[in-house]
Design brief:
Layout: H1 2-25, H2 29-33, H3 39-63, H4 68-79, H5 88-94, H6 97-125, H7 134-158, H8 160-189, H9 193-196, H10 199-219, H11 224-235, H12 239-249, H13 255-290
């Protein structure tokens, strides 16, 4: 069982690294310059992702009386920040891919510094300081986020044609790998689900994910494509770091099941939001297409 846990943990880390690498391969010059012209949007975006989403987690775990294992699961998931899995087709259709990819790159670069600080703060707030030193968390994030980001950006800049062909299939492959690894973790932790599944636990996780989505959507502003990017970026979480913390804090206990429950709730909450936004975008495009052309001005 220990061997399986090690293998699955490695697979989750590899899929995270591949996802980051694939996203970084898509970076172009225009993506890097996007925030030069809109620094206010950058500050708002980083505030939502790195500050307000964890604040939502703190508020939830302090407001709702839930077991320690659920508190720590929500806290660690709130700092398991990754370059988000954005709805790329929707972004490219709306013509605002530069915001999504530019934000993805900057989040990846800043994660290595912010996450260890967040881990220390949330450990104090949740009354359960994590057993992993800040430098070990930083080293983990460096290996699976920062290094793949830099390598992906370099490959994308040097081999543009190759990067365009490979980036999307590689991201899909990494996503499939994450689903497989998550399914294995879920099966292993299934016996512990009755111990962590409760109305209050699910309510707390729903509120955390809804809060992160809502904060990002509101701060994204009136432009729908930007609101979607920031909402998904604020709510995106990957279980790899949370499960790494689990191995130290609650080895062989119910923490893994709590983390996976949080992942499931995130997927359930995010999916309807994306469908809703996709329908709104499709309706907007259809309305523009049906709008009568301006009548020609007589000479």
């Amino acid at each position: 069982m220990e061997l399986v846990a090690t293998a699955v943990g490695l697979l989750l880390s590899v899929t995270l690294g591949l996802t980051v690498f694939a996203n970084a391969m898509r970076v172009e010059k225009e993506d890097l310059l996007f925030f030069v012209h809109d620094q206010r949007l950058l500050l708002i975006s980083l505030l939502s992702i790195f500050v307000l989403a964890p604040v939502v987690a703190i508020s939830v775990i302090e407001w709702i009386d839930i077991p320690l294992v659920i508190r720590v699961a929500i806290a660690t998931m709130s700092i398991s920040i990754i370059p988000p899995l954005l709805p790329w087709k929707q972004l490219e259709a709306s013509g605002n891919r530069h915001y999504g990819i530019g934000l993805t790159l900057i989040v990846a670069l800043l994660t290595v510094g912010f996450v260890p600080l967040q881990a220390d703060l949330l450990g104090r707030v949740s009354h359960h300081p994590y057993g992993i030193p800040a430098w070990e968390i930083a080293r983990y994030v460096l290996a699976v986020v920062l290094v793949p980001t830099i390598l992906g950006a370099l490959v994308g800049a040097r081999f543009k044609g190759f990067a365009r062909r490979v980036a999307v299939p590689l991201a899909h492959f990494a996503g499939l790998g994450m689903l497989v690894a998550s399914a294995i973790v879920l099966i292993v932790a299934l016996r512990d689900f009755p111990h962590v599944l409760s109305v209050r636990a699910v309510l707390a996780m729903v509120l955390f994910n809804l809060g992160a989505l809502g904060v990002g959507h509101l701060l994204g502003g009136p432009q729908r494509d930007r609101a979607v990017v920031l909402a998904v970026s604020s709510a995106s979480r990957h279980p790899a770091l949370a499960l790494a913390i689990a191995a130290v804090n609650f080895p062989g206990e119910k923490y893994t099941a709590a983390v996976m429950l949080c992942v499931i709730v995130n997927m359930i909450v995010t999916a309807p939001y994306l469908r809703w936004q996709a329908k709104k975008q499709a309706a907007s495009i259809e309305a523009r297409q049906k709008a009568p052309a301006e009548a020609p001005v007589d000479a």
